[in-house]
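User: Design a sequence. Structure:
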């Protein structure tokens, strides 16, 4: 039996493969690694700020958080050095094995160049992370960003907890509201611009 309606495939054009991009340079890969590390460190420091302020009741301490940034960066640098050593060992073992790999982690002599590149990236990234850990301006900027993120998260949590809370609105509340909002705005501005001692 013939179909009454034929399904027609739309013509999408002829496939043209995109131009091949050049391989990223070692510096580009290290820069990306530093950006990824910065995001992770910023998140860790933000969480530390929230814990220290809300759970432990401690005041904001710029030096404590800059020290935490440095410590996290050095930990990541040590981790990258460990990765480089592991990759070097894998590369050495792979150089003695010929043939085709049978699994994704079954490295052979043909994988030597790729493993060498990974090792070089890990070593260069470790060196750059150590270099960045000594940069005071970099640590200060990262702490500033983490602090802003922590304040946003705390404010969002407070807003969420206030939803559904009833407030008695009377004449006195309406009269004093503008003054309280102004004072709150001043307090928030001060918290964002000056660290507490």
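Assistant: Done.
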């Amino acid at each position: 039996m013939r179909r009454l309606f034929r399904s027609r495939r739309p013509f999408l054009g002829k496939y043209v493969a995109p131009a091949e991009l050049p391989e990223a340079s070692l510096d580009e890969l290290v820069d990306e690694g530093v950006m990824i590390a910065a995001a992770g460190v910023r998140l860790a420091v933000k969480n530390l700020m929230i814990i220290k302020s809300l759970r432990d009741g401690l005041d904001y301490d710029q030096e404590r958080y800059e020290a935490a940034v440095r410590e996290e960066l050095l930990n990541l640098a040590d981790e990258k050095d460990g990765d480089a050593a592991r990759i070097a060992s894998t590369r050495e073992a792979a150089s003695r094995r010929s043939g085709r790999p049978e699994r994704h982690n079954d490295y052979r002599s043909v994988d030597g160049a790729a493993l060498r590149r990974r090792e070089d990236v890990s070593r260069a990234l470790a060196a750059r992370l150590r270099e960045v850990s000594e940069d005071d301006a970099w640590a200060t900027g990262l702490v500033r960003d983490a602090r802003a993120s922590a304040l946003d998260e705390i404010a969002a949590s407070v807003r969420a907890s206030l939803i559904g809370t009833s407030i008695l609105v009377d004449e006195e509340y309406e009269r004093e509201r503008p003054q309280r909002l102004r004072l709150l705005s001043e307090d928030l501005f001060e918290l964002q611009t000056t660290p507490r001692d």
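The mean pLDDT is 88. The helical segments are 26-55, 62-95, 112-133, 136-162, 171-193.
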